[in-house]
Amino acid sequence: MLVVLITLAIAIYEQWVTVPNHQTHVLIRACRDRLLVGTRETLFTHLSQQPCAGTYTLQVMADERKKRVAREALMTLRYCRVQCLRPRRLDGTDYPHSVVLYAVEAVEINPPPGQAPVHWRLLTTHRVVCLEQALQMIAWYGWRWRIEQLFATLKQSGLNLEATQLEFGAAIQRLCVLALSPAVRVLQFRTYAKTLDIA
Q1: pTM here?
Q2: Given a cut of 60, is residue 68 above it in pLDDT?
Q3: 27: buried, middle or exposed (CB in 10 Å: 19+, 13-18, 0-12)?
């Protein structure tokens, strides 16, 4: 099974209806509110009115750029099945009138003073009908940050894969595979250094 993680919801409707199959699913963070079939409510309103399915804790890493402090956040979790309308920009196309998705919302309870609460709204083609499945979507989406860090490490000095002078695709692929091991080790050392508070 392949899970496609998408961080930007640009032209996402097309991907919801073309990418998924029996082996591939889409999981995105919903950045825009959407109209739903059969209701006047929008996605965000409908999702926030669902009953709390459970809670979990999330280790929030500090981020100086966002002035976010490290903490253990208590999160509430909601989920439901939704049917999103096709955007108006796609009227007159062959895309279906609507698409059935599953929505998951995680919201931090009582963030520290001066801190914005962690708030994720995810949409997926995966079936989410129980708490365990909702938590799995959260866990998979959480890996997005580590994947981004891995690719950033591959591009940094030392590895700097973007500066390669190799010309053939097969050679570049081999170089990328060779560079993955040291890039993962760099990330492991950074994570370990943060636990010792020496980074």
Answers
A1: 0.79
A2: yes
A3: buried
